[in-house]
Amino acid sequence: MHPAFAVGLVFAGCCSNVVFLELLARKHPGCGNIVTFAQFLFIAVEGFLFEADLGRKRPAIPIRYYGAMVAMFFTVSVVNNYALNLNIAMPLHMIFRSGSLIANMILGIIILKKRYSIFKYTSIALVSVGIFICTFMSAKQVTSQSSSSENDGFQAFAWWLLGIGALTFALLMSARMGIFQETLYRQFGKHSKEALFYNHALPLPGFIFLASDIYDHAVLFNKSELYQVPVVGVTVPIMWFYLFMNVITQYVCIRGVFTLTTECTSLTVTLVVTLRKFVSLIFSILYFRNPFTLWHWLGTVFVFLGTLMYTEVWSNLGPPKGQPPKEDKRN
């Protein structure tokens, strides 16, 4: 697959996925569990058919190593989606998750004993300041938009604070999972499609503990207004249509990122994903008219500028080190 087509998949899949997730969360803020279950089920079925060959293909990485990875991946996915039910707006949700570089650096220093250049420490400081600004301004909005009752205001702020804690926990857990996955790939080789399948298939029994919540939201989805799907002409409850589109776009997004990792350098992948997050953020603000002040914009600029600095994109735009620039053959 051509890299340009993979980039198109990432932007089309991931950006549209955010739109359908926000449509779901705006109508039923607590629907994170049913969304996560649907995404896991779809990718697990697809992987069982095409990657695991109906269970006949033995995994390259022993199953026991997937246990810890799956536990972390399942926890991160559930906590991230559930945070939307804790007074966390979608723009703040996206900005906060863009701070993964901070978590990766912190755990890299602690676990892998890594050391970084001053340039990278500066970029992480920018990301940290940007997230702090957006978080602080969102906290002010939560308290100001809540009821005039002092108890209601405190309760709204307490739920928001819990949501920030959940996002922080998911951020650190995701970074730890990345380090663990990197260690496995170094030992057994890179098997991204296999890891994608097992990360989604093995956690499925865990949704039994969330069955009651998933069933309740399925009932709510059935009661939503009817919607006639274009082209097909089938009429379904609109929430099920949003969920179906969210699952499909999530799959397109993940496959696009996977293709990029096999066709492009890690720098290119990081840059594309960063730009995708920025486009998703801007679209969410403009289309859904999410409250976003000048301070939010400043924080956003810090986050993405720090991310680009961390990838050292400017120093990598020229020819590789030790390779002279190509001559102009037109003369």
Automatic annotation (TrEMBL):
Q: Which residues form a coiled coil?
A: none
Got a GO cellular component term for this one?
endomembrane system
Q: Localized where?
A: Endomembrane system
Q: What is its main location?
A: membrane
Query: Is-annotated flag, keyword Calcium?
Result: no
Q: What family classification does the UniProt entry report for this protein?
A: Belongs to the nucleotide-sugar transporter family. SLC35B subfamily.
Name of protein: Solute carrier family 35 member B4
- Organism (species): Sus scrofa (Pig)
